[in-house]
Structure to design on (159 residues):
């Protein structure tokens, strides 16, 4: 029995430039994105948390690529699910081989609002995302609940 291989990647971040759309010789749309994803690390000398940006090239094919080109722009937050793809080629100047790992997207989810305001709760800086829902939360289970007499400490657990 052979071991199975898994090649899945999920990232959320912000576009570092406007999408670039082109087509293959067969007419398939190909959209190129560049996504910045921050990871937080604690600086060993200062003890402060610092953001370290990571940059990923993403390729989106077909109608989804067309949608990315039409509706996304620099600074827009996105979530990408896809697979890693490794390529190798000879440098144009003949100086040797070049290598690159990129993401081939299966799906791209547009986050935030189209104008980049992120829902308005982050001062319109374009980097935030504020989830919202058209359905109000049901809080009826919590209404009228009173704290138990005697403080309700851990000693009063009823089991």
């Amino acid at each position: 029995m052979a071991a199975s291989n898994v090649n899945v990647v999920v990232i959320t971040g912000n576009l570092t430039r406007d999408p670039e759309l082109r087509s293959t010789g067969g007419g398939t749309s190909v959209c190129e994105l560049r996504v910045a994803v921050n990871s937080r690390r604690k600086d060993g000398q200062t003890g402060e948390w610092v953001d370290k940006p990571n940059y990923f090239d993403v390729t989106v094919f077909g109608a989804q690529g067309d949608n990315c080109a039409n509706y996304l722009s620099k600074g827009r937050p996105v979530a990408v699910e896809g697979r890693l793809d490794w390529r190798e080629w000879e440098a144009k100047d003949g100086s040797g081989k070049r290598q690159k790992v990129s993401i081939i997207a299966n799906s791209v989810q547009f986050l935030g609002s189209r104008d980049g305001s992120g829902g308005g709760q982050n001062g319109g800086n374009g980097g935030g995302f504020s989830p919202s829902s058209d359905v109000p939360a049901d809080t009826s289970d919590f209404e009228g609940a009173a704290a138990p007499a005697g403080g309700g400490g851990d000693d009063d657990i009823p089991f």
Q: What stands out?
A: Residues 41 and 47 are 10 Å apart (CA to CA). Helices lie at 62-71.
